[in-house]
User: Which sequence fits this backbone?
């Protein structure tokens, strides 16, 4: 006969301590990183990134002027054979425009004419960005609860948001860079708010070096330019971005040319930013974190990770999206909690208009997330995963766990129907206190076998996920 035994989460606590060992030095590895892979692999993920939990992604560029794509659906939920022709990513406007018969091509011809070149959007973008106040964004990010931001300095269209001194050999001229140093202005504003600033750069795709549209997933990797000329161009850009802005996050996309000097680029970056982090999209066997897109892991993952997604189906602003295409506030909050419980960060994207204004529905989601975090953030920020990420049982709420110090936080992803609810599989210590985050007094609780039953005094705060702090760290039921 199986017997249940009660055991303290010592094994889980020790395992998480090992997970976080790399974060003990907040400035990264104490030794200088050399331009070789053995040395680069010694870099350690810093505390600030492990603890940040929430970042803001910003997709902003020429594609923000036409700001149009068919709202087909989320990545991973659309037939991949139809994805590129019906691409819901507005930032892919140029590629989709190149595909005969695509909805974007039809829209472009009808709206701008057959002879209107994509890069003719540059004067409009430059005129509109002159109106932008970066301090408004930075204050919004802070109020939302984000600890860092990542700006797209060059997306796949090759248009740059900083005054690069590296000329494009395929498309020289004024229409390939913003007139204003948008990257620099935002970096200064974000850091003035006490947040970290990261930079995205599309090192793998640059459509100024190619003319054939990407129409299949197989073609996606095939269209990475592999010439010596492009490799030197991308290398020079990453070096320039490092030297000018010292970004805290080096966020590459869609692989990298094989002739690129990545050991040199990485060593140079870590020399300039010892507590910086590098993502996994360079296509090599090294990264500080992984980046599932419109996806998340289903269990606690030891390697640090970051899920990125738009509020709707697109990263760039898409005027064709309506409220029905945008994630609901309660779903967004539950998404963040789930990701954090499994050792992840959420990089949540906004797509501004050319003048820097943000749509009402995107602002609504950020404000509601920020309001929730103002109450529940203590169980999100600076936490570690607990010995397990989740618990669920018939008739009980779906729960996610985090841990900080001597407390465990249990988040009920669905609000209970009454002030009495069950947290399954948790055994509280006799001297435990249980408090709903945002409440002014402790809650009553009782142990019923393997389940913790909580009765709330007063009303439950908010209208989304409910956070419960249990101190000291509870015991857990383990079946032997």
Assistant:
């Amino acid at each position: 006969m199986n017997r249940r035994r009660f055991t303290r989460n010592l094994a889980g606590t020790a395992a998480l301590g090992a997970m976080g060992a790399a974060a003990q030095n907040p400035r990264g590895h104490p030794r200088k990183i050399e331009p070789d892979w053995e040395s680069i692999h010694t870099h350690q993920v810093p505390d600030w990134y492990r603890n940040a939990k929430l970042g803001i992604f910003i997709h902003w560029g020429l594609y923000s002027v036409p700001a149009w794509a068919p709202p087909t659906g989320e990545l991973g939920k659309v037939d991949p054979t139809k994805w590129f022709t019906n691409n819901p990513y507005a930032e892919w406007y140029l590629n989709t425009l190149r595909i005969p018969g695509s909805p974007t091509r039809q829209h472009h011809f009808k709206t701008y004419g057959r002879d209107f070149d994509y890069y003719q959007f540059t004067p409009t973008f430059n005129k509109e960005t002159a109106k932008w106040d970066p301090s408004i964004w930075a204050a919004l990010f802070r109020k939302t609860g984000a600890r860092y931001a990542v700006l797209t300095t060059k997306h796949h269209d090759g248009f740059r948001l900083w005054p690069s001194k590296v000329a494009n050999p395929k498309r020289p001229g004024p229409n390939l860079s913003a007139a204003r140093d948008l990257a620099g202005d935002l970096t200064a504003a974000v850091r003035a708010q006490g947040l970290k600033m990261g930079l995205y750069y599309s090192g793998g795709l640059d459509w100024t070096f190619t003319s054939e549209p990407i129409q299949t997933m197989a073609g996606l990797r095939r269209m990475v330019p592999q010439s010596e000329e492009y490799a030197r161009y991308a290398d020079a850009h990453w070096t320039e971005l490092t030297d000018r802005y010292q970004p805290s996050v080096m966020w590459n996309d869609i692989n990298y040319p094989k002739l690129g000097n990545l050991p040199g680029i990485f060593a140079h970056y870590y020399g300039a930013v010892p507590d910086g982090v590098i993502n996994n999209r360079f296509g090599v066997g090294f990264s500080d974190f992984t980046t599932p897109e419109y996806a998340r892991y289903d269990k606690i993952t030891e390697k640090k990770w970051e899920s990125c997604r738009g509020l709707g189906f697109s990263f760039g602003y898409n005027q064709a999206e309506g409220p029905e295409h945008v994630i609901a506030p309660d779903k967004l909050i539950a998404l963040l909690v789930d990701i954090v419980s499994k050792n992840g960060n959420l990089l949540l994207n906004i797509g501004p208009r050319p003048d820097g204004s943000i749509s009402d529905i995107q602002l609504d989601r950020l404000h509601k997330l920020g309001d929730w975090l103002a109450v529940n953030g203590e169980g999100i920020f600076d936490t570690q995963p607990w010995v397990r990420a989740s618990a669920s049982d018939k008739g009980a709420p779906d729960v996610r766990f985090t841990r900080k110090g001597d407390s465990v936080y249990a988040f009920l992803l669905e609000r209970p129907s009454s002030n009495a609810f069950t947290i399954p599989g948790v055994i509280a210590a006799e001297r435990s206190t249980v408090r709903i985050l945002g409440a002014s007094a402790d809650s009553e609780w009782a142990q019923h076998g393997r389940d913790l039953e909580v009765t709330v005094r007063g009303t439950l705060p908010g209208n989304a996920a409910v956070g419960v702090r249990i101190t000291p760290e509870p015991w857990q039921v383990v079946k032997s």
Observations:
- Residues 390-479 form a domain with the Immunoglobulin-like fold (CATH 2.60.40.1180).
- The two ends are 10 Å apart (CA to CA).
- Confidence is low (pLDDT under 50) at residues 1-29.
